[in-house]
Amino acid sequence: MTSTPIVLFLCVHNAGRSQMAAGWMRYLAGESVGVYSAGSAPAETINAVAVEAMAEVGIDIVGNQPQRWTDAMLREVDVVITMGCGDECPYVPGTRYEDWELTDPAGQGIETVRPIRDEIEQRVRALLAELVPVLEQPVGFNEAERGPMGFDLDVAKAFSLKVWQYKQGEVVSAMVHLGDRLGLYRSLYTQGPATSDLLAEATGLDERWLREWLLGQAAAGLVERTSEGFYSMTDEQAAVLVDEDSLLFATASFGGGFSREDYDRMAHSMETGIGFTYGELGIEAARQLDRTNAPWLRGFLPTAVIPLLPGVVDKLTAGARVLDIGCGGGVALEGLADRYPNSSYVGMDPSGPAVEVARERFDVRDNVEIHLAGGETLFDEEGFDLIMTLDCLHDMSRPDLAAQSIRSSLAPHGTWLVKEIKCGPTYESNQRNPLRALMYGYSVSSCLASATVEEDGLGLGTLGLDPDTLAKIVTDAGFTSFEKLQTPDPVHFYYRVSA
């Protein structure tokens, strides 16, 4: 079996059972399992009642298209699940096969399809448990805190995704507001199929910001996108997003989630191409970011990531010099300082509010220093044994200059730990991310904003620092060792870099 198992769900028409199974597997497994869905005689469209049944549990399969299986699929997959296609299903020796006997939802009403959907869910959960063994409980979960019914990690992961999809809705709502406020929907619908360049020309707005907004809109399914990068809107979409006389018009309701000042900043950046700093978002935003990241930085980082760095635990125990660039409120430094008090720590962040939070946190510590500064002009004669950039390089205007500064400030045999969002180099390569629309929205509202605060900024954005791009930045800065670490973090990649 491959490092990432791949499953093919097969039925005759690829319109009902196999589509629901693939939807469940993508929903429950995320990136841990690859998924194909196909049929021996595919229908023209997906079963509308199956779409309705899946929508009831928060899974969107409306955009899926029935397709015929291919030899390439069969060569790639590890498991084939057949559903009533009999001799019509292809057979490949050496591949694991299972046949699931399920009622065909074709021609059935919603009351009949719901139990089929629920049975498929249970079968998918059982298959997933075989393919991807998981820990009995998540990092940091205390046995004493369990409820009387015990803890089911699969249920918790599915619930976590559901909660984050609501957060995605909040951020996409802000993007809808911007589309209405700046006339982007109206312009796109009136103009017809357009690239980000054409829309920028028509609206007078900045192309790079429009491109990120359009990618997020396509990810959310609110506009159409071709593989050539052309965007358009259907009449039905326009009835909801553009036509103010339509009874379906909805965009006037999208004004919450962000303050008026937040929207003003984003709109100004889309007009000028110049972003804004995290500091401008204020101290409450800094505190909120700390609370969001705390479980991963205070608990997961020291226990699950730091031990993967050769020799670093020994250095920290004996007494090392540690630098956290983009330290925010200092949560990661706190997690390390609690476990390794013999070491000395320096935190740097260009956000005044974040630095204020960090200084409050370390008010009584004598082995932690916090400085208001970025990482692009760093230099330290003594050298640091461990330098960390945790989910912040893509926020920098010039991560290439930061990498050069880190190279000059790393002690001999020192280690640079990089944490970045899991992503690929293209829009298509990020399609398996169920929260990709949220990521593009985050980019417009904060990450791209920070990365374009200077006119020569690279403007990477939230999903802009894929492994290949990072490898080039690291190599160009003079580093010779670059390794992606294997961790159970479902959202981030971690890298070990050294000279």
Give a nutshell description of this structure.
The chain contains 17 helices and 13 strands. It is α/β, with parallel strands linked by helices. It has three domains: 6-131, Response regulator (Rossmann fold, 3-Layer(aba) Sandwich), CATH 3.40.50.2300; 160-273, Arc Repressor Mutant, subunit A; 284-423 and 465-498, Vaccinia Virus protein VP39 (Rossmann fold).
Describe the structure.
With 499 residues, the protein is α/β, with parallel strands linked by helices. It has 17 helices and 13 strands. The chain has helices at 17-29, 48-56, 71-76, 110-131, 153-181, 184-191, 196-203, 207-219, 235-241, 260-272, 283-305, 312-318, 331-339, 352-361, 399-409, 436-451, 467-476, and strands at residues 6-11, 34-39, 79-82, 96-99, 224-225, 231-232, 321-325, 344-349, 368-372, 384-390, 410-421, 481-485, 492-498.
CATH topology label of the largest domain: Rossmann fold
Number of strands: 13
What helical percentage do the residues reach? 40-55%
Contiguous low-pLDDT stretches (5 residues minimum) are 134-146
The number of helical segments is 17
Q: What is the CA-CA span between the terminal residues? A: 35 Å
Largest sheet features: 7 strands, mixed
Oligomer category: single chain
The H-and-E topology, N to C, reads as: EHEHHEEHHHHHEEHHHHEHEHEEHEHHEE
Blueprint of the fold:
Blueprint: E1 6-11, H1 17-29, E2 34-39, H2 48-56, H3 71-76, E3 79-82, E4 96-99, H4 110-131, H5 153-181, H6 184-191, H7 196-203, H8 207-219, E5 224-225, E6 231-232, H9 235-241, H10 260-272, H11 283-305, H12 312-318, E7 321-325, H13 331-339, E8 344-349, H14 352-361, E9 368-372, E10 384-390, H15 399-409, E11 410-421, H16 436-451, H17 467-476, E12 481-485, E13 492-498
Parallel strand pairs: 1-2, 1-3, 3-4, 7-8, 7-10, 8-9, 10-11
Antiparallel strand pairs: 5-6, 11-13, 12-13
Helix pairs in contact: 1-4, 2-4, 5-16, 7-8, 8-16, 11-13, 11-14
